[in-house]
Design a protein that fits this description.
globular; TATA-Binding Protein; 11 strands; 4-stranded mixed β-sheet; 5-stranded antiparallel β-sheet; DNA Methylphosphotriester Repair Domain
Length: 490
């Protein structure tokens, strides 16, 4: 399946009106120019019979089209369809975006998905039009283009940061994808971007974006030493497979983008970090799609109208999020935050040089698994639960990120001592990225419903929430946000 054969009229109307809802969901290729664009491209709209639609940039490139140098397809938000879906293709696309093919090859990708390379290739071609190698090649080219446009890194550094195996491969791929050499894009100098490892990137999103509600949520839960919110900016330490460092996220004024300021010890993990930050701030969401469903409920309609563009906070570290969830069982947000801070100060790795109030990296699962966790104010049951979780992650290969198979992961979580449906649902919502995760027994959810005069018994909630699918996680966050204080979500 190379082109999108259905809904041609709908997609063509979208590019005529430059509808931002379709940005990143479709790519428009023009046969007379050999160029493919975003649906919001400011160039004159081509005649319909010259247009071809593709579901991903790699498929357009495989058909012989080059990326537009005006609308920058490489900067478009990702398609939320793959975040909504949890099947093989969706998981493969998320892993490719994280750079798994670059580090482990197609064989490594197939192995993590527990399928053969041939089956994986067949499934990807059927869904998006190209196989894993082509998708990875396009991802590398797009990453390189962003770094060329937005940083002063040397072209050699950019080539290897983006995942290319050689300068020759870098030059050939960029020529094929964009119709020119990498040096052609380097037209200006960006002040403050000269030190390699200290970078600022723009992460685009589809408006609207309720940044203040998201920031408030994170601020209430910020772990001392690991996170802080200062001057409308979120800062934290991060640990990645080959690097560690500090990131900052803040809104870019007058643009539909979030600024990511980062300093990493090694830029090899840059692509993975960008994807994690996109997931963390839910930047690939389509607010209009969520609103279309939730606004049909008389209870949720005014809540959605009050907070347009509300996002679900994700995480940059699935293990850390799971620890938070266990600590937050049946105690206040402040109490859970205090316990998490004690774990960090006792077991976390100190930064060589503190950055503001940031002093530690979050404790590694191996460290938690081998610790007795005594003297931290933890109950015996929480200690058992945390050590079991840490062993599952460190020794048994439990993955707590968006590449994980959701149902299987939830099943494994529920087998751990001290992990019940609420905890598993919360982890699924924020770490696994399930937009339909629903903590049915959550006290804050029940309190919000009662405040709005809605029956809050389990059966009534479950029945009403059926109409909120596939966005029950968004409905939950709207209800939590409707409370003056949010007593439970942790």
């Amino acid at each position: 399946m190379e082109t999108i054969s259905t809904d041609f009229d709908l997609y063509y109307r979208a590019i005529c009106s430059r509808d931002p809802r379709f940005d990143g969901r479709i790519f428009t290729a023009v046969t007379t120019t050999g160029i493919y664009c975003r649906p919001i491209c400011p160039a004159p709209t081509p005649h319909a019979h010259h247009v071809r639609f593709y579901s991903c940039a790699a498929a357009a490139e495989a058909a012989g089209f080059r990326a537009c140098r005006r609308c920058h397809p490489e900067a478009s938000p990702g398609s939320p369809e793959w975040n909504l879906r949890a099947d093989l293709v969706a998981r493969a696309l998320r892993m490719i975006a994280d750079g798994v093919v670059d580090t482990n090859g197609v064989a490594g990708l197939a192995n993590r998905l527990a399928v053969s390379e041939r089956h994986l290739h067949r499934e990807l071609v059927a869904e998006v039009g190209v196989g894993p190698l082509a998708l990875a090649r396009t991802r590398r080219a797009q990453t390189a283009r962003l770094l060329i446009d937005q940083t002063d890194l040397s072209l050699t550094t950019i080539a290897f940061t983006a995942g290319f195996a050689s300068i020759r491969q870098f030059n050939e791929t960029m020529q094929a994808a964009f119709g020119c050499t990498p040096s052609t894009f380097r037209r200006r100098t960006l002040s403050g971007q000269g030190s390699e490892g200290k970078l600022t990137l723009r992460l685009q999103y589809r408006p609207p974006f309720d940044f203040d509600t998201l920031l408030g949520y994170l601020q209430k839960r910020a772990i001392t030493g690991v996170e802080e919110v200062v001057e409308r900016r979120y800062r934290r330490t991060v640990v990645l497979p080959r690097s560690r460092g500090v990131i900052e996220l803040e809104p870019a004024e007058k643009t539909h983008a979030i600024l990511l300021h980062l300093q990493l010890s090694d830029l090899s993990d840059l692509s993975m970090l960008v994807q994690r930050c996109r997931h963390f701030f839910d930047l690939d969401a389509i607010p209009a799609a969520v609103t279309d469903v939730l606004a049909t409920d008389s209870l949720l309609a005014p809540l959605v109208a009050a907070r347009p563009g509300l996002r679900i906070p994700g995480t940059v570290d699935g293990f850390e999020l799971a620890v938070r969830a266990i600590l937050g069982q049946q105690i206040s947000v402040a109490g859970a935050r205090t316990l998490a801070g004690r774990i960090v100060s006792t077991l976390g790795e100190p930064l060589e040089q503190p950055s503001g109030t940031l002093t530690h990296y979050f404790a590694a699962p191996q460290t938690v698994a081998s610790s007795e966790l005594q003297g931290l104010g933890l109950t015996k049951s929480r200690i058992v639960a945390l050590r079991a979780l840490a062993r599952a992650v460190a020794e048994e290969g439990l993955e707590l990120d968006r590449s994980a198979e959701r149902e299987q992961t939830i099943g494994r979580l529920l087998q751990l001592p001290g992990v019940g449906p609420w905890t598993a649902s919360y982890i699924a919502m924020r770490a696994l990225g399930d937009p339909d995760a629903f903590p049915l027994t959550d006290l804050g959810l029940q309190r919000a419903l009662e405040r709005h005069g809605v029956p809050a018994d389990r059966k009534s909630i479950e029945k009403r929430a059926e109409a909120w699918r596939p966005w029950r996680a968004y409905a939950t966050h709207h209800l939590w946000a409707s409370l003056a204080t949010v007593p439970t979500p942790r």
